[in-house]
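Example 3.
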Amino acid sequence: MSEHDYTPKSKVGKWFNDRLPLLTLGSHLSDYPTPKNLNYWWTFGGILTFCLLTQIITGIVLAMHYVAHADLAFASVEHIMRDVNFGWLIRYIHSNGASMFFLAVYIHIFRSLFYGSYKSPREVIWIIGLMIYVLMMAAAFMGYVLPWGQMSFWGATVITNLFTAIPLVGESITTWLWGAYSVDNPTLNRFFSLHYLIPFLILGLVVLHIWALHIPGNNNPVGIDIKKPSKDTVPFHPYITIKDAFALLMFMIIFAGFVFFSPNVLGHSDNYIPANPLVTPAHIVPEWYLLPFYAILRSVPDKLGGVILMFGAIFILFVLPWLDTSKVRSAVFRPIYRQFYWIFVLDVLMLGYMGAMPAEGIYLVLARVGTIYYFLHFIVVLPLVGLLEKTDPIPMSISEPVLTGGVDPSLARKDDDKI
Amino acid sequence: MIRFKSKILALSFSLLLTSIPPSFGAGSGDNLLKVDWSFKGLTGKFDRASLQRGFQVYKEVCSSCHSMQYLSYRNLGEPGGPEFSEQEVKAIAASIEIDDGPDSQGEMFVRPGRPADKFKSPYPNVNASTAANGGAYPPDMSVLVKARPGGSNYIYSVLMGYEEPPAEINLDDGVYYNKYMIGNKIKMSSPLSEDIVEYTDGTQSTVDQMAKDVTTFLTWAAEPELEERHRTGVKVIIYLILLTTLVYLSMKKIWSGIDTEV
């Protein structure tokens, strides 16, 4: 992207930059032309970077004091809370940080869905983002197991048992995952190892995510391609950095509110009971951010079917750029899609709620309706609306007002002159 | 028009965020007795005298069955807790016999407790504890308040919730009816009765007073960092608000040359 030539001013800088052009990279990141009309929903990328780094830093410190052993894990967490200097703060930042991370990632994903950021030429950014999301779920799930409380143990039991649904080899695979004949000390050990590994995989993918973003540049609320740099763009620094900083600080205020004033409200009280393989909790519930998928899993009477639908609900997102047939990106100019978008948001929220409720009676019925609609949205609604919808007139540029009269929507998508 | 719509979008998203249910799956805490605890709220602190009385109730009543294995005697003298004096903490610890060893001869021995010792458990292990209590394990009290939906109110309610069972409920021997216990059946008989503890500070030891005091103590035991957390939290939030304001003003200034609102 950086068409500008950059030469460091100092001799040392030039010497170094000729050998490893880190300064050129810095200059590119700083000058990176960004649409000037990005709204605050675009600040969540920066916020997510902050979340990842916060989790990594607090996690490294926690790992210095945590003991990954079935007999000692719970006690070591209490040791962190009571005896380690600011241990309570570090642990509460880490545990609430997971929730804040997911809050931010859901906003980030739903922003993309609204403004069509997943569409050509940004499919690869979208797919890398989804890979990050899947890894986040794995990391969060394994992290939740580490304190070895009742929900840790039984959550791990329920989720790992899903693999027994695989025909023929299911049982063997599950035993292999456990490293034992039930969730036990070997399971805890490997979860700890993987929980430490995954964030660094995520970090690598984040680099690719941003790299892929810097090829076409940011989408924007109008969803049109813009010339870069032009009067429609501003340099990343200081314009976007200061705006991201402002949004991040607002986010941190909410974050701090949870950490200091209700650090356990997002967790489950059962996880302060040490794991006991002989006592099953009345309701086994995952953390809030996994609830919609949990609802989908439980809405299918057949175990294997439930597992397939649950994973399907995530993997259908990977083909979303090809399911959405509309050439117009932003929902601002898509009156019909916009309505279905909000129905979809409500559907996911409803599924989340059903995931927290017992799978019976009206809850189960609604979870089933929600599950069916979830898939209909992708398989039926998106392809059809894209073909049938009459979109609103689209401006030629961010600075210019909407042209009078209709405009060919294909103007909003000029793949060929990209990159 | 577009901007207007994105404002609406912003608003609806914020509404959405604030409407996230606070605690999924937590049991119903709606019908519990509610106490206006001094430690609730943004600047909530423990009532020091109540903590000390609560420790007395714990020591003289609860600790005969319930362990509190993650606390040490030294915690009783630390800031934000009951804040017993150093001498008092040493005396409390010294009154306990701790099994230690092996010594240089390989023998186990008994010695008086030290402030650094963990609270001594009433039973050597969970099985002994379960066997001695009619098959119901008296849970460790270190984090009990955090381990129950409803927290402090739940503990207080259970202590106050003993009453005659309704006619349609038949109870086995050693099982008691409790209005607030999950499932209404509890294997612990009502632990508190008028004057079971003689408070050293002269406070009248009614059941209600003791229940409040011991609940306060258990809340501190579960969250010994609570006061520091609240204090730090207020400072952090004030700092963040000031910094946010400065950054906001800087942002307005920086963007003033651009014809797009921020």
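Chain B touches chain A through 55 residues (CB under 8 Å). The longest helix of chain B spans residues 226-255.
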